[in-house]
């Protein structure tokens, strides 16, 4: 059993992506560009461009996954807030940014009204919202 999720532990690293693939592709890209600079030729240029393309692809796949996750969070949180907030705040749900909604996903139902008020009044970002959470609501379904 893992420890409860908190602000300090909520970030997720995907070991294969973060510690194997990206470093491998980055080192390969740097090495092939270095080789091209030292021995310029069509073949070494092509290999360097291919390495750069593969590294870019690996980064882009991660970015796309995070964007899809943010879209889902936006939808989930808007539905959740429409159910939990008092009427005066329900009308202001569209004013919340994606970053604010991403931060609010960790707020417990009991304190969500207070955090939404603060987010709207003070234009808080997602990180600022997370730092103010009293009772953390874990999200284990992250990409």
Overview of the molecule:
The chain has 143 residues and is mostly helical. It folds into two domains: 14-69; 85-138, no CATH class. The chain has six helices and no strands. It has helices at 15-38, 42-84, 87-90, 98-104, 112-122, 126-131. Helix 1 packs antiparallel against helix 2 and helix 2 (42-84) packs across helix 4 (98-104). The mean pLDDT is 93.
Secondary structure elements and pairings:
Elements: H1 15-38, H2 42-84, H3 87-90, H4 98-104, H5 112-122, H6 126-131
Helix pairs in contact: 1-2, 2-4
Q: Can you describe this structure in just a few lines?
A:
The chain is mostly helical and 143 residues long. The protein has 6 helices and no strands.
Could you tell me the number of beta strands? Answer: 0
Tally of discrete structural domains: 2
The percent range for strand residues is under 5%
Order of helices and strands: HHHHHH
Main sheet? none
Low-confidence stretches: none
Intertermini distance: 20 Å
Q: What structural class do the secondary elements suggest? A: mainly alpha
Give average pLDDT, whole number. Answer: 93
Q: State the helical fraction.
A: 55-70%
Total helical elements: 6
Radius of gyration: 21 Å
């Amino acid at each position: 059993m893992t420890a409860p999720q908190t602000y300090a532990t909520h970030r997720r690293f995907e070991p294969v992506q973060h510690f194997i693939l990206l470093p491998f592709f980055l080192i390969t890209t740097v090495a092939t560009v270095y080789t091209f600079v030292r021995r310029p030729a069509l073949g070494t240029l092509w290999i360097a461009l291919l390495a750069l393309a593969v590294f870019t692809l690996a980064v882009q796949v991660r970015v796309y996954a995070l964007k899809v996750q943010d879209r889902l969070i936006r939808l989930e949180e808007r539905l959740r807030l429409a159910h939990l907030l008092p009427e005066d705040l329900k009308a202001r749900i569209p004013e919340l940014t994606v970053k604010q909604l991403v931060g609010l996903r960790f707020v417990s139902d009991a304190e969500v009204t207070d955090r939404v008020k603060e987010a709207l009044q003070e234009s808080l970002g997602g990180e600022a919202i997370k730092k103010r959470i009293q009772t953390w609501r874990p999200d284990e379904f992250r990409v």
